[in-house]
Predict the 3D structure of the following.
Amino acid sequence: MRLVVVSNRVTVPDRNEKAAAGGLAVALREALEKHGGLWFGWSGAVSEGPSQEIRQIQRGKVTYALTDLGEAERQSYYLGFSNRALWPIMHYRLGLTEFQRSDYMGYLGVNRRFARALAGLIQPDDVIWIHDYHLIPLAAELRRRGIGNRIGYFHHIPWPSADVLGALPFSSTLIRTLTSYDLVGMQTQIDARNLIDGLVSLCGGKAEGSTLRLGGRKTVIRAFPIGIDVESFRRLAAASVRQAATPLRATRESLGERKLVIGVDRLDYSKGIVQRLEAFGQFLRSHPDQRSRVGLLQIAPPSRSDVPEYAELDRQSDEVAGRLNAQLGEFDWTPIRVVKKAYSRSALAGFYRRAQVGLVTPMRDGMNLVAKEYVAAQDPADPGVLVLSRFAGAAQQMGEALIVNPYDTHEVAEAIRTALAMPKSERIRRFEALYRTISATDIAWWTNRYLDALSAGREVPDEPRSWPIEISGGRPAASGNRLPDPKTGESRSHAKAEPETRAGAAKPPLRATGADRPGGKSAPRTGKGTPRLKVVGS
Ligand code: ADQ
């Protein structure tokens, strides 16, 4: 089997590039290396007119096939329909959704052009994995050209309920094209359920569990929550403490004994950055004793600056931070620092580790990898506390964080206070549970689980809501299910590890499930046992 990955943007790695730490691109590259494969998509370059040319670049066992977008295509397909219509509506922001019929036509046109180019590169035993909302109709276009291969789609962002999505013109035509896929992966079970309901109510499909039948086709729609490379991120964070000239050290010096609350996001209205700044201001107003003792570092590099809503957000975040600093700051203390730069993975890991509170409060988010990175970076002997929006997909897995409603400024402000005052024993207890979850569902687990389901059409078990230690086939699982040793920071198997857990054997979890989840209801166990884990590239 050869793997073909398709995504809107493709970045070809430098020949001499050292292995970057984790991330989706690295996991996909590893999967492509393992199976041998092709990665197709937009080069990032823009030409005057639409380009028919496909450039192929070989790196090891992976071929990168790149095409440029014409300026009109970039405007309609990328900035227009993808980022001003689909992105806001998928994030439940009807008020920001800008639909233009010509953008939709441009979107369909680019998907058609991609399908035409890709169809010529497909071999009979290829398995095709298409990523994200820019490319929803791609499988339908490939089928039209006679491609009968197995094709999967993964949707990285939320999927709203049918009555929200139904407001988008052509939504039923568009979502119906998803039935050309064999497997549709969503971040959470809520998203998967919303899509199934939409295909039933807007398109007349018939659902049976996770299987949707429509127009003679059968599509499986399931949750595949994405993870991070926990082990390499943990190592980066631990190393950043030891290195001499790092941003972490400089931060330490500039903060002194002060505590640090951190936010890290692309500058995007879905991330709730302005609301978060306001909540931090509220926290300082409600708890004047905390002034001068703690600062918020918000790292937010601008993205999609060509889209007016993003330019407005950039202005608004500066304005709010400036106002709060002027109202609450002292001559020797600036409460909020907003930094609009991208940092290296290693610098980010160091910032996370230095911060007593990770403030991850999107208004909506497919998953939110920052929540997982923050936990992976913590010192196991003295971990910080994650404050997490209930509207991030990550909240479905990370119930031991302090779960908040980002629309409720006072609630977020009080969660910051609770996090800063939390006793060490409780911080460790929460950290260990969170670390166990993110390790057991890391990026290797995600890739393997998805590709298993796609390539063989095999049933994959639901993921349990809390993670027992597990061993797959007598081998330790992924980096996973291992807690870092509080003294050395090295991964170690948990003391209570069971020697073997067989799929279907439904072992009791080591930690109580929902009962001790802050702000969470008792989470039901699936009763289907635990999935086996494999490691990509192991
Ligand atoms: P994003 O919306 O980009 O991804 P997220 O999951 O938080 O959101 O990932 C952002 C990544 O960018 C993280 O790895 C983070 O470390 C990095 N990053 C952010 N700011 C940075 C900075 N200043 N410097 C360097 N790196 C920075 C979409 C969906 C998410 C989903 C992911 C993956 O919107 O919901 O989790 O895809 O499926």
Summary: The pocket of adenosine-5'-diphosphate-glucose is lined by residues 24, 156-157, 226, 264-266, 299, 301, 342-343, 348, 365-370, 373 (CB under 6 Å). The mean pLDDT is 85.
